[in-house]
Design brief:
By secondary structure, the protein is α/β, with parallel strands linked by helices. It has 2 domains: 282 residues, 3-Layer(aba) Sandwich (Aldehyde Dehydrogenase, Chain A, domain 1); 189 residues, Aldehyde Dehydrogenase, Chain A, domain 2 (3-Layer(aba) Sandwich), CATH 3.40.309. It is built from 16 helices and 24 strands. It has a 7-stranded mixed sheet with strand order 14-17-18-13-12-20-21, sandwiched between helices. Strands 9-8-7-10-11-23 form a 6-stranded mixed sheet, with helices on both faces. Strands 5-6-24 form a 3-stranded antiparallel sheet. α3 packs antiparallel against α5 and α10 packs across α11. The chain binds nicotinamide-adenine-dinucleotide.
């Protein structure tokens, strides 16, 4: 663990050079129209940098460059071991600049520096290494044909893939996309969220230095409804790799329908149930995990365990332990390595969260913890908040809040836990705490979610797929399954007769 103090991080942030340009065809560039937007530090409200705001004309030139590189073949047709070597170099350059990237991430979106250093950076680096290492080991197939023919089933790269990502784990969500997209041989255009463009812009330089050819890796900062929409509607983009809200995910399906029927992979929102049964192996451990499962990253986590579904006979014990755990969490300066909960990404998101808290009170839930904004100059901070006596029909139980707000729902038995767990439009993740193996299997099978954790929450590694059922999306990030999204299956039937 990095042993820098809060003062050293503040000093380093004052010296930091912020790059704000787009990266197209192997070089940094302004938007053709010179359009820009401002990026602020959510912990202080101070201006961090001025960022190029890509528009349709910039999307056109990025797509043209990506297409040219794909057709020319120096990446798309390179031997997998060559792509592997360059991606490993890319990961190495990110690793050797990890402190700077962690600082950029924390300044840009408000997460604690300790988490940027110990979670976002190592997981991003590991993700790029993992796909690099995988790509020269995955084989294609031959069908069981008669001896008069041979049928080859080969996976081919799609071409130009646009990766549109959110602000909550900017570098990690980008890595989950760009690593398998590039490993499979595609060209990529990465569009970061407008709240958090800095690490995406910075790593473009490392991609070029690692030898990834010009045009293969592009970064287009810009507004969703301009740059994102233009990518979604572009006739020469073959695939959209999207992570973000369900609302915007639906737009991308429409854009595909209105344009060239491009493939669309969607990793969207969630309202994940975390179900604690009275027979959990360790109720205190379950409660501590439930607290981190909602308050980590300020609750700005797609798979946050935002609905605590707990068997009524142990509810009070669990809630008391969660409250005690949350009270010990330090909320404040993201650059202080002792901080557990940092700043909310911007004022708009903080207002959204506060509106949900007010709606919970108005609908009759019992506010047991938090519920207030914290005064901190122009920064945006919200206390960890716990509601008890929540009915699953309430807005705070149905809608994704994307903030540090936990809704507690009591249930009498297993059947009710399953029914409440599934009573949601989402299906991203779920947690179950029980010592009964039959119950663990039965409930995990019954829950309509892409990821189910038993006796833990938010565990896993890059080898395990991640993604949602229902309106949480389609397709999977992580694991070898992600390569399926960025390749097309070609059957070649060779007549030997
Ligand atoms: P968002 O949907 O507002 O934005 C995501 C991206 O889409 C951004 O790059 C944005 O600029 C772009 N965008 C916005 N409006 C657009 C439009 N009209 N046309 C085209 N592009 C547009 O999401 P967000 O607020 O950045 O992130 C939070 C959401 O992301 C939450 O719903 C969260 O659950 C989800 N998320 C999901 C996962 C997952 O793996 N399932 C992971 C992280 C975050």
């Amino acid at each position: 663990m990095n042993d820098m103090t809060v003062d050293i991080w503040h000093a380093r942030s004052r010296d930091l050079q912020i790059r704000g340009e787009a990266f197209i065809d192997g070089r940094y560039t302004k938007a053709l129209s010179d359009a820009t937007f401002e990026s602020f530090n959510p912990a202080t409200g101070k201006l961090l940098g001025v960022i190029a705001s890509a528009e349709e004309a910039d999307v056109d030139r990025a797509v043209a460059s990506a297409r040219k590189a794909f057709a020319q073949g120096s990446w798309s047709k390179a031997a997998p071991r060559e792509r592997k070597a360059k991606l490993l170099k890319f990961a190495e350059l990110i690793e050797s600049n990890a402190d700077e990237l962690a600082l950029l991430e924390t300044l840009d979106m408000g997460k604690p520096i300790r988490d940027s250093l110990s979670v976002d950076l190592p997981l991003s680096i590991n993700c790029i290494r993992w796909y690099a290492e995988a790509v020269d080991k995955v084989y294609d197939e031959i069908a069981p044909t008669p001896s008069t023919a041979i049928s080859l089933m080969r996976r081919e790269p799609l071409g130009v893939v646009a990766a549109i990502v959110p602000w909550n784990f900017p570098l990690l969500m980008a890595s989950w996309k760009i690593a398998p997209i590039l490993a499979a041989g595609n060209s990529v255009i990465l569009k970061p969220a407008e709240q958090s463009s800095l690490t995406a812009i910075r790593i473009a330089e490392f991609a070029a230095a690692a030898g990834i050819p010009d045009g293969v890796f592009n970064v287009l900062p810009g507004r969703g409804e301009i740059a994102g929409k233009a990518l979604g509607l572009h006739m020469d983009v073959d695939c959209i790799a999207f992570t973000g809200s369900t609302e915007v995910g639906k737009y991308f399906m429409q854009y595909a329908g209105q344009s060239n029927l491009k493939r669309v992979g969607l990793e969207c929102g969630g309202k994940s149930p975390n179900i604690i049964f009275a027979d959990a192996p360790d109720l205190d451990a379950a409660a501590i995990s439930a607290a981190w499962g909602i308050f980590y990253n300020q609750g700005e986590v797609c798979n946050a365990g935002s609905r605590l579904i707990v068997e009524d006979k142990v509810k009070d014990q669990v809630v008391e332990k969660i409250i005690a755990t949350a009270k010990a969490m330090k909320v404040g300066d993201p650059l202080d390595p002792r901080t557990d909960i940092g700043a909310i990404v911007d004022g708009k998101q903080a207002d959204t969260i506060m509106n949900y808290i007010e709606s919970g009170i108005a609908e009759g839930a019992t506010l047991r913890l938090g519920g207030k904004r914290m005064e901190a100059g122009d920064g945006h901070f919200i206390e960890p908040t716990l509601f008890d006596d929540v009915d699953n029909k309430m807005k705070i139980a149905q809608e994704e809040i994307f903030g540090p707000v936990l809704s507690t729902i009591s249930v009498k038995d297993e059947d009710e836990a399953i029914a409440v767990g599934n009573d949601t439009i989402y299906g991203l993740a779920a947690g179950i705490w029980t010592s009964n193996i039959n119950r663990a299997f039965k409930v995990s099978s019954a829950l309509r979610a892409g990821v189910v954790w038993v006796n833990c929450f938010d565990h896993g590694d890059i080898s395990s797929p991640f993604g949602g059922f229902k309106q949480s999306g389609s397709g999977r990030d992580k694991s070898l399954h992600a390569l399926e999204k960025y390749t097309d299956l070609k059957a070649t039937w060779i007549n030997l007769g």
